[in-house]
Model the fold of this input.
Amino acid sequence: MCPVPQITPALVAAILKVESGFDPHVHDPANDEYGIARWTPRVLRYYLPEDRQERVPSPPFDAEESILAMGRMLCTLAPQLEGVAGDPALNLAAAYRTATFVVQKENGVPARVRPYTTEVRTHLMAYAPERKTCLPYTPTESSYPAPCHS
Done:
């Protein structure tokens, strides 16, 4: 659905693993985060299909809908992070957990978010289709074990 090369099923899976351990029933009312992607209702609203954006949704959130919304969000954020230092995939993960402007301001993954992106990177490497997967972009730091660029 999105022509951004760093947005892959492996990245989405890695983020979901860190966010919820793939548990669609996660509920954290203290942080207003729910479901497999730990959406806050007020943010999820903007990444639902257009005909459903008028109202803030109420949890529980459907896993399939949440995952599709994550893809839409990552695809929306990616152009805003072009030119930011570091791994584009991990910058996206950091922006998902915090905000795009925070990653832009820090010119990469902020120190307070690094434990999160380190976990995402670990799972991203595990979910790569093959251990010698080549990245479709030239990274400064590689999300995958073998970027294959000379």
